[in-house]
Amino acid sequence: MLALEGVTKRFGGLTAVRAVDLRVERGELVGIIGPNGAGKTTLFNLIAGAQRPDEGRIVFDGADLAGRPPHAICRLGLTRTFQLVKPFGSLSVEDNVLVGALTRVPSVREARRAAVEVLETCGLGPFRDAPARTLPIGLRKRLEVARALATRPRLVLLDEVMAGLNPTELGRILELIRRLHADGLTLLVIEHIMAAMMRLAQRIVVLHHGEKIAEGPPAAVARDPRVVDAYLGEEFVLAQD
Ligand SMILES: Nc1ncnc2c1ncn2[C@@H]1O[C@H](COP(=O)(O)OP(=O)(O)OP(=O)(O)O)[C@@H](O)[C@H]1O
Ligand SMILES: [Mg+2]
Predict the structure, then answer these.
(1) d(CA 153, CA 74)
(2) Separation of 159 CA from ligand 2 center, angstroms?
(3) Which one of 76, 136, 156, 215 is most buried, counting C-beta atoms within 10 A?
(4) pTM for this prediction
(5) Which atom of ligand 1 is closest in space to residue 160's alpha carbon?
């Protein structure tokens, strides 16, 4: 469904993403981990069209994404969330999701119906009239997911939607992601919370200094000496045993 070949992005002298190859098959849930500054969000920016790679190719469902702006890529069925959530603060929760739905449905009435459905899926029904800026972080993260879902994606890129959540909120969003995946959505998920990732992903890709240093099933990746060195630390490995 998604194929990256030799994707590279430089910011001046810094290579944020270096020759990354990555494939995501339809129906997969793939995790991306790596230390701060590893290039994870930059990779999402490149896939979603917010930034252009200096080298390499990105193909989604047979379409070369080169030169396509984010809204065109969204229309192809590929949507992302933002690590720093970006709701329209003064709009209601429902209207925020409506904006997403309007990318697909031209009639406001139909789009609103679609938005309400997505709000229910995401457990945001009771908050639909609240201004988005009044939501606590856990709900704002879910709103970010809802806005993405309203564009009816086939592939969603989630950038740290679990960061900063308490255990209850974390459990809820994990359950939501699992349900979306079970219903057929393909997901690429950036997450620092390794325990959550181990339970969620079928395959994990590890970035370090912009390079892909490991890839495989969660248990194998967690034991990979390069990953332990770069990211997890010995204590994590001991905790797994
Ligand atoms: N627009 C930009 N201009 C210059 N440098 C940038 C830009 N965006 C990112 N970088 C740099 O590229 C590197 C990768 O950043 P990126 O945000 O992709 O990392 P990340 O893996 O998402 O980190 P985190 O876990 O902290 O979110 C960092 O060194 C960052 O400072
Ligand atoms: Mg990031």
Answers:
(1) 7
(2) 7
(3) 156
(4) 0.94
(5) 27
